[in-house]
Amino acid sequence: MTVFRPPLPTRRHLLAAGALSPLLRPSRLRAATTVPDSPLSAEHALVAFGHVGPVSDGGWTHAHDLGVQAVRARWPGLNTIYVESIPYSADATRIFRQFVAEGAAMVIATSNYGDFIRDVADAAPKVAFLECDGHNVSDNLGWYYITHWYASYIIGVAAGRLSKSGRLGYIASFPIPSVFAGANATLLGAQSVNPQATMRVISINSWFDPQAASQAGAALVDSGCDFLCGIMDDPAYLRVAEERHVWAAMWNTDMRRFGPDSYVSSVVLDFAPFYIDQIAARLAGRWQPAGHFLGLGHGVDRDAWGARVPQAVRDEADAVRTRILAGWNPFTGPIRDTTGRIRIPAGQSMSDAELYQWSWQVQGGAGLA
């Protein structure tokens, strides 16, 4: 049966219960040359999930938890455990090592933990590890990520039509590649229908801080932005948009209930098919470590349009979506950065690997270092 272990709801409870003894950071160990390949029955297997936030956040972690729920529905006898709000610190290493000690056949981290998870994977060659937004593949460690830049571009087309001022405001977490990709893609989509569109970005140094997100949203509206978007795990700035009568697009899940009049769409995530596929492979003894991009319509997409989005805007944006699904790449040059320098020459397109590592802001944008 599915197992919810009270001792493992949070890092704090783990430490308080004495379940995790202080462990020195292990030295880099060379993984074995064999992958986890022994077939397992669901009733005798344990899969552990490590989350960066609370499953109740309504955003990123909630989207992953929906995938976990789908796994439980697919295999009612599979044992599953999870820990919420794992910090980016040595505590992460302790928790991942605890998963291994619990007997996990597979460990799935729903955020990028770098060496904190890789060190554990290297020391446990018979356990399969997956890291969301990871960048390493070893004998028993793979990664996966969503190509959210396409959904962001589609929503950007709608933003370019809906914004009367042409000023978009973006609430960001940190100046990291996923944020650059999301902000840039949205702005480029807007500029495809309104070449004068601009974007101001405010980073709040958190994925989940409703107060800071609200303050950033209000500041952007005060500066003249009439379309808010971002990459937050909560609906705070949508509430601001509703109060201030401007448009807003969200991330992770359908959040329209928090601002039905302002809601345009959301970059929505669906990890369920991928989790089911990967766990099925592990149970069958045929899992292989690799990097996986979950594409448009297969893990990530735009949400159903908000009630007040005009039909003409929906149709125009969805025509772009159809072109992307048919193979068209909207990230084709010339694309300039904020200094006017051409970064992507005419006729050259950015690959998913390049978009995944985006580290510069496009012309018309401001606020990302």
Automatic annotation (TrEMBL):
Record keyword Cytoplasm present: no
Cited Gene3D superfamilies: 3.40.50.2300
Transmembrane segments: none
Highest taxon in the source lineage: Bacteria
CDD domains registered for this protein in UniProt: PBP1_BMP-like (cd19963)
InterPro entries: ABC-Purine-Binding, PnrA-like
Classification via Pfam families: Bmp
Every ABC transporter substrate-binding protein PnrA-like domain range: 47-300
Keywords on record: Signal, Sugar transport, Transport
GO cellular component labels: plasma membrane
PANTHER family found in the cross-reference section: ABC TRANSPORTER SUBSTRATE-BINDING PROTEIN
Descriptive protein name: Simple sugar transport system substrate-binding protein
